[in-house]
């Protein structure tokens, strides 16, 4: 991978147009087709997470599937941590929209920088479980994403779980709305997450994910909210005593391509990439669902207090935030909410 990275950086804008915004079309035309009908081409894929987080793992799985199916003619260079954007996820989104990279996977809470409507499915307690999320996103929800992204010069290829978001902290067990009050909780900058915690009386703090571990250690914040897999990969269990499972919102990653670059590829290559993107997304979903239960048991064995709310306890939280939930339903509008089957309170 290091050799490939160096090669790509030396090649500059020849394939991905990192400096000029041009895509891989020139490289495609020059390489032509191989014996099996696939262009000999290397595409660049950017993701925001570390190399052990689910977005990077899905991207790596995709690269593996594509290379195998094309007999090595179509290859994917995966860059985790938004390396090509200097670690700046906002710049990373701009790069996929402008053609600075060919492919990408970003959480919807990050992609709001180009269209806030993309985070409609993060409205609290929209999905009952992962099966429910899959069903809706693979039908009307995915169609909605595709339509919104098309207007930004981005082609939607699929979706995979980032995970239902839970809460961890170092102060106390969270079982009632009262328990959340006055907790300093790191959240992404999304308005949905900020208002949710403010409504519960917490002190939400927007902070770069790379700063969270140290901030908790130093007592700057009390906790964070995130999916189980990310909580584990970031080693939050080493510095947080309490975890509450409440599935308060669902977050997914969108697997996308720059439209101009996508359309410059030959049809057989596009068909291959679309098929393997969907396959990689399904693999990612299955992986998150399978790993979460084992990770929670590991947390318990390490002495972490894990609280799973019952229906009555969950209803207390849902009642507390019903007003702000309706605000977001009204804000996103009928078309968006219909796509994700979100009903008014």
Give an overview of the whole structure.
The structure is a single chain. The protein is α/β, with parallel strands linked by helices. The protein has helices at 2-11, 25-31, 54-69, 89-98, 108-111, 130-150, 177-180, 191-199, 212-217, 228-233, 259-264, 267-301, 311-320, 322-339; strands at residues 41-47, 74-79, 103-107, 154-169, 184-187, 203-206, 223-226, 242-258, 305-308. Strands 1, 2, 3, 4, 5, 6, 7, 8 and 9 form a 9-stranded mixed beta sheet that branches. Helix 8 (191-199) links the parallel strand 5 (184-187) and strand 6. Helix 3 packs antiparallel against helix 12 (267-301). The longest helix is centred in the C-terminal third of the chain and has 35 residues, at 267-301. The protein starts with a helix and ends in a 6-residue tail after the last helix. Mean pLDDT is 90; it is low at 1-31.
Helical run tally: 14
Largest sheet, in brief, is:
9 strands, mixed
> Based on the structure, what is the oligomeric state of the protein chains?
single chain
Strand content: 15-25%
Share of helical residues: 40-55%
- Mean pLDDT across the residues is 90
What structural class do you assign from the helix and strand content? alpha/beta
Separation of the first and last Cα atoms: 50 Å
Unreliable spans: 1-31
Count of individual beta strands: 9
Q: Could you state the order of secondary-structure elements as H and E? A: HHEHEHEHHEHEHEHEHEHHEHH
Principal-axes shape call: globular
